[in-house]
Every structure is written in structure tokens, then in C-alpha cells.
Design a protein that fits this description.
The two termini are about 20 Å apart. Helices cover about 0% and strands about 30% of the residues. The strands form three sheets. Strands 1-3-6-9-11-12 form a six-stranded mixed sheet, with no helix packed on it. It has a three-stranded parallel sheet with strand order 2-5-8, with no helix packed on it. A three-stranded parallel sheet has the order 4-7-10, with no helix packed on it. It is mainly beta and about 100 residues long.
């Protein structure tokens, strides 16, 4: 997407789609294989979507197969294992809903 801010130590792997105006915090992690094994060279990529305006905090981990919806926020250090609804703040391991976010800012 356009106007995406990707901080230090972030890798955007095959299968991850990042829309416009997203923030990817320092050292956050995407995955793209639900059953990783060193010896499996024919693994299937599991898609992950980061929709417009989503923000992901530092050191968060996004397990593949989820959608981070419009303008959601993922707290630093969180592990996201399920879809995050629009305008929602999630934190923790596993990430849980804390509150709805009123605006895009």
C-alpha cells in the first residue's frame, strides 16, 4: 500500500498483504506457514491481510491466516491469533480486545 511506515527489523513475507496508511512497529513479526518444519520445502503459504490504517506495535507477532481490519491497533508485544475487527485495540498473548477506537487518529 501507499504511505506504509515499516520500522527497523520488519520482514514482509510472501502471502502478507499490507494496505495503505499502515504502521508496522519495530521488530514486529509476520508468519506465513501454519505448520513450519525445517525439512518441509513444499509448504503452503497462508495469507495474512493488514487493511487500511492498521497499526502494529513493536515486537508483536501476527500468526498467519488472520485479517487485521481497518484502523485496528495491535499493542506492543502482542501475539495475534485471530482476526481483529475494525477500530479495535487488542493486546496480550494471545491478543484480546481491550476497547473500540473511536477515530482513525
Amino acid at each position: 500500500g501507499d504511505r506504509v511506515k515499516i520500522q527497523n527489523g520488519v520482514s514482509v513475507y510472501r502471502g502478507v498483504t499490507v494496505s495503505s496508511d499502515c504502521f508496522l512497529g519495530p521488530h514486529m513479526v509476520f508468519t506465513n506457514d501454519l505448520q513450519p518444519r525445517a525439512f518441509n520445502h513444499d509448504f503452503t503459504v497462508t495469507e495474512t491481510k493488514v487493511e487500511t490504517g492498521a497499526s502494529i506495535g513493536a515486537n508483536a507477532t501476527i500468526i498467519c491466516g488472520v485479517t487485521l481490519s481497518e484502523y485496528c491497533m495491535v499493542g506492543a508485544g502482542s501475539v495475534v491469533t485471530k482476526d481483529v475487527a475494525p477500530y479495535t485495540l487488542v493486546v496480550g498473548n494471545p491478543a484480546k480486545v481491550i476497547k473500540k477506537i473511536e477515530t482513525q487518529s
